[in-house]
Design goal:
25% of the residues lie in helices and 32% in strands. It contains 6 helices and 14 strands. It has a 6-stranded antiparallel sheet. Strands 5-6-4-8-7 form a 5-stranded antiparallel sheet.
Amino acid sequence: MSKDKEELLLRKRIMELARIADRKGMATYTDFLNLNEISIFKSMNNELPYINYQLYGGYEGAERNVICFYGDESVKAFSSYITCIRIKPLNKKFSDDLTHRDFLGAIMNLGLERSKIGDILVKEKEGYIFCLSGISSFIIDNLEKVKHTSIQCERMNEEAPEVRPSFKEIRGTVSSPRLDSIIALAFGSSRSSMLSLISSGNVFVDGRLVESNSYVLKEGETVSVRGHGKFIYKELQSQTKKGRYYCLILKYT
């Protein structure tokens, strides 16, 4: 299926869900959307009916999110729609060094669609998988190995501290809070090497596709770069004698 046709189908599906929620006063949900799909949704603001909605991926700062449309403001949009599953080795001492790719591959081998799975956080050889609640039992009952490591699965409650992402503080100086400058600092590269990433549609700011390297970041915005990772642009702290700015970035680890 072509990229244009996929986008058209997504737009139709989002519009249909919004209209059903508006007409029937009920909650409707998408599957998990990736950054590009969320960007498409955000470009539809003027097309959608006036309807309440929330984006949520299971924890604050999630990259992949479900959209819930709801007409009744008393609705608890995500009270039971997303589940977090903890996947841990039966014997951590002899476990492989498991990565995001390993956990995702094991789950996809169960025959599930990628859109049913949200973010995957990895910590100390354990994986925390966010998924639609309707498939959580299937994963728990059928996932037995990740890579060559025997594992066990368990549901986590909403307050589980282990599922919170961790950050690395990055401090440095930039000429301005332009997107290319901040990305270069975040990933330890040059501004010129970042230009192709931006122009080729690989950079998203708070879920919106940004293709201008001169975009000026605002404090608190989250930047995601395909194939590199994501970070929160925290703040400009002070200015040097040469006119550069000290900058603080929180990079997801």
